[in-house]
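ping. complex inputs:
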Amino acid sequence: MYGGGYIFEESKNGHSEEEDQIKLQKFEERIAAGEKIEPSDWMPAEYRKQLIRMIEQHAHSEIIGALPEGTWITRAPGFRRKLALMAKVQDEVGHAQLLYSAAETLGKPREQMINDLITGKSKYSNVFNYPAVTWADTAVIAWLIDAGAIINQVANSKGSYGPYCRALERICLEESFHLKYGHDNVVFLATGTSQQRQMVQDALIRWWPPIMHFFGPSDKISVHTETLMRWKVKMASNDDMRQKFLDMYVPKIWELGLTIPDPKLKKNNETGKWEYTEPDWEEFKRVINGDGPCNKERLAVRRRAEEKGEWVRNALLRPSEKYTVPLS
Amino acid sequence: MSIKSLDPRITREQLPDESDNNPIKELHQWQTYEVFHQSKKGDRHIHVGSLHAPNAEMAILLAKEQYARRYKCVNLWVVKTSDVFITDYDDEDMFEANQEKMYREAGGYKVMDRINKFKTEHKKN
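pong. complex structure:
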């Protein structure tokens, strides 16, 4: 699922100065010409750093993103839905594997990435710090969070780093099942009994603020990303992606007669842009820095999984083996 | 205090609220393998990505899960990354001469001009 609202680190003093200017120029020309950068190519240190950060955050989000929905596997309404939810959750974990491999080609071993996740040093998408309170929450997540993720990932798959683009292409194919599965679940509840409608409406109310947070802080307050956009690390601004999401999905939510909890939400026909209540970015910052309803639980579960698997990894470990950075 | 979750399986684990950091060690994810995928018999195997595994058998198992989850696949190869030897993109000029060796290309042999010239001269006589 996922991968939106990356937090980029601001570089202290316009980074390109220490780089070899001739190599840098050639690098930028290649990107401008639509070429992909491969792991063994020369790249600016800043490009490498921001890509590792972004792909790693994306991988963590996949693996942590499996947890809120996973909450309902044992209590899914019916066997078919249980199978489908298990398949979806398994897909997400698989996506994490593909993304960890892509990030690794840039030189950060997977052990370090996992350590940075379980010690809280690395971030993952903020939305997964919220609980899936009912079955309907899993439906809303699978439909709308995955929809947001697809918008983000389709954009990023046109980026400049080859291994990341190739991983995303594979991921996007699988996400199309998630989107249809989620939509099917939401439609089933929204066209069902009054109790089922109420369930999905309540879930939408709970998830709307996280969904609006999903694409990251407004362009007005987010870190300057011109260089990252020129290097095709970031492919669209946070606000542009949010607009695209609203354009595609608000009509689909309204056609089910559901209410979006934002009285200001409407499309301005003159500008062609959606107007909405500015999301609460203070809450976003607070939650991403650890103070959300489920941050502790998510990391504790991840940590326990590592601890429980340790004896298996030890049993299979051959100390004579050497680690090699994967090729692509 | 242990974590209370909406998921009863997590509550039962009695996970501690605070962590004592017990980082995983180097190589705990094992070494890496490169994966090649064939979608039908007769097609080439195509490199699709890499994965971590403790041995080749496990690598095949994980390759099936990660790279052959959907769409047709009839065969997988896995190769230890450390066993792959590669050329350097910086040396890509070593392939450039290929284009200059026209004597070994079909396009390097143009006879129609000569034939036409011969025919014209032949007609005159």
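The longest strand of chain A covers residues 266-268.
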